[in-house]
Amino acid sequence: MQYSKLGSSGVNVSRVCLGSMTWGIQNTQQEANEQIEFALSKGINFIDTAELYPVPPAADKHGDTERIIGNWIATNPARRKDFVLASKIAGPGLSYIRDGHKITAESVIESVDASLGRLKTDYIDLFQLHWPNRVSPHFAKHWPGQVTFSKANSDVETNQMLEILQALDDCIKAGKIRFCGLSDDTP
């Protein structure tokens, strides 16, 4: 297995990450357990999940993938140290997650605490914004004319991001997460 540094963290993660976004719909607890065991036996030390998983997202299923991983962790608590666990807070738009509201400092804390409960662990190694609040060319917004960046109020956007980053820093200082990041964003 090849490993790379996780950003500037100094933590080595396997270049192959075990994704879990279908666990709870396409995969059962038993199948997920087998996949985790197989991945760890091959040197994979990086597992990714998110509060909105499984995919396709649904109100009655969100958080199930974290629960499946949490069940494995609860059965294997001594092995929690053997892998880097990544999870993500959903961005705006899903009415059944924080009423579809934008990410805020308060929702970061709420999301981290809820994920920790579902994951049955004391810490998340990498906690990411699944997608940013700001307008970005993702989810079918790649076509010309779909995104107009000049309409954004940069002062408002900067202040919102600062509050989110401060909440992430509070979670790091509290030992709830080790590192933070951003997922599903383009340059």
Can you tell me about this structure?
By secondary structure, the protein is of the alpha/beta class. The protein has one domain: TIM Barrel (Alpha-Beta Barrel), CATH 3.20.20.100. Helix content is 32%, strand content 16%. The protein is built from 4 helices and 7 strands, in the order βββαβαβαβαβ. Strands 3-4-5-6-7 form a 5-stranded parallel β-sheet. Helix 3 links the parallel strand 5 and strand 6. Helix 1 crosses helix 2 and helix 2 crosses helix 3. The longest helix is centred in the last third of the chain and has 20 residues. The two termini are 29 Å apart.
CATH superfamily, called what?
A: NADP-dependent oxidoreductase domain
The fold-level CATH name is: TIM Barrel
In terms of DSSP E residues, the strand content is 15-25%
- Main sheet? 5 strands, parallel
- Architecture per CATH nomenclature, i.e. the level-2 architecture: Alpha-Beta Barrel
How many E-type strands? 7
Strand order of the largest sheet: 3-4-5-6-7
Through-space gap between termini: 29 Å
Mean pLDDT: 90
- Give the % helix: 25-40%
Core attributes:
single chain, 5-stranded parallel beta sheet, 4 helices, 187 residues, globular, alpha/beta, TIM Barrel
How would you concisely characterize the structure shown here?
This protein has 187 residues and is an alpha/beta fold. The protein contains 4 helices and 7 strands, in the order βββαβαβαβαβ. Helix 1 (29-41) packs across helix 2 (64-75), helix 2 crosses helix 3 and helix 3 runs parallel beside helix 4.
Per-chain topology:
Elements: E1 3-5, E2 12-14, E3 18-19, H1 29-41, E4 46-48, H2 64-75, E5 84-89, H3 105-119, E6 124-129, H4 154-173, E7 177-182
Parallel strand pairs: 3-4, 4-5, 5-6, 6-7
Antiparallel strand pairs: 1-2
